[in-house]
Design brief:
The protein has 8 helices and 3 strands, in the order αααααααββαβ. By secondary structure, it is mainly α. The protein has 2 domains: 2-203, Alpha-lytic protease prodomain-like (Up-down Bundle); 210-286, 2-Layer Sandwich (Alpha-Beta Plaits), CATH 3.30.70.1350. A 3-stranded mixed β-sheet has the order 1-2-3, with helices on one face. Strand 1 (228-237) and strand 2 form a beta hairpin. Helix 2 (35-61) runs parallel beside helix 6. The protein is elongated and about 85 Å long. The mean pLDDT is 81.
């Protein structure tokens, strides 16, 4: 399937790119003692885990439905997105603690132009990865790719602030390094909490958004032979939904005629609304005279 193949490639590129960035950031951060660069390196380490979890989650969610999983394995991507968010929070907390400590102890880093070079390389690599994953997210509407795209975008902003901190070192302004380390950590934690909430909502079977529901209702309302509907339910299945509802049709119709209306409506919704994985319709008769 094209979606899962594309996510697999994006995950692989993310791992390779972040391993490269982790190595150069780690080396330069260690020798210069820059907390902003070390925070950036820790961020890259978290990104490696995120990309690996994206790969594993994508592989599981791409499996077709079976006897044990009648609705497929789509929720796997939300479980792994939850793991990604927790890793981001834990990694950021460690860097946040170190940066706050350095702020009060007045620790200084050793300026090097390699700090500037590494920042520029990181921004270029991450911006390219962001463009690619953002394109895939818009095309496939996949939360794992969304998580990676957000992460790549955040990394661009993070490294820009890191670049400013490094440049301030050239002017002997060292306090900015600790402040940037704190800012980077807080930024990552906020982004991780948003991702956690989105994944949690799906795993807790939060209903579909009102915009998607209205798409379905508009299709139903175009069928004049349907007098009303009730018991509308939507259950998340990965990035899609299984929906069910009851329609009321003319009680004088034959069983075949009334169920033919439901069957055609199911096919129309599944075809026109990409967010719908499966439509189940129950048919009730109604007395036209009432």
């Amino acid at each position: 399937m094209e979606k899962f193949k594309a996510i697999k490639i994006a995950s692989f590129l993310g791992v390779i790119g972040n391993i490269f960035l982790l190595i150069i950031k780690g080396i330069v951060g260690f020798f210069t003692g820059s907390f902003a660069m070390i925070a950036d390196a820790m961020n890259s380490a978290g990104d490696i885990f995120s990309s690996l979890l994206t790969y594993v989650g994508n592989k599981i969610s791409s499996k077709p439905k079976d006897d044990d999983h009648n609705l497929g394995h789509g929720k796997a991507e939300y479980i792994y997105s939850l793991f990604i968010s927790l890793i981001m929070i834990l990694m950021s907390y460690e860097v946040l603690s170190s940066s706050i400590k350095a702020l009060f102890t007045g620790e200084r880093f050793v300026f090097s132009f390699w700090l500037i070079i590494v920042c520029i390389i990181t921004i270029i690599v991450k911006f390219i990865l962001f463009l690619y994953t953002n394109y895939l997210y818009k095309k496939f509407d996949n939360i794992l790719i969304k998580a990676n795209s957000i992460d790549h975008r955040n990394d661009c902003f993070i490294t820009i602030t890191n670049l400013i901190a490094c440049a301030c070192g050239l002017l002997n302004i060292y306090i900015i390094d600790s402040i940037v380390g704190i800012g980077i950590s807080i930024w990552i934690i906020i982004s991780a909490l948003k991702l956690f909430r989105e994944s949690y909502d799906v795993l807790m079977d939060k209903s579909m958004d009102i915009e998607t529901k209205n798409k379905v209702l508009d299709i139903i309302n175009n069928h004049k032979e349907i007098y009303r509907i009730n018991h509308f339910n939507a259950t998340p299945v990965g990035y899609q939904y299984q929906i069910s509802f009851t329609i009321f049709v003319d009680g004088n119709l034959s069983t075949f005629e009334s169920h033919d209306i439901a069957n055609k409506l199911e096919k129309e919704i599944d075809k026109k609304v990409e967010e719908v994985f499966l439509t189940v319709i129950h048919v009730n008769p109604v007395d036209k005279k009432v």
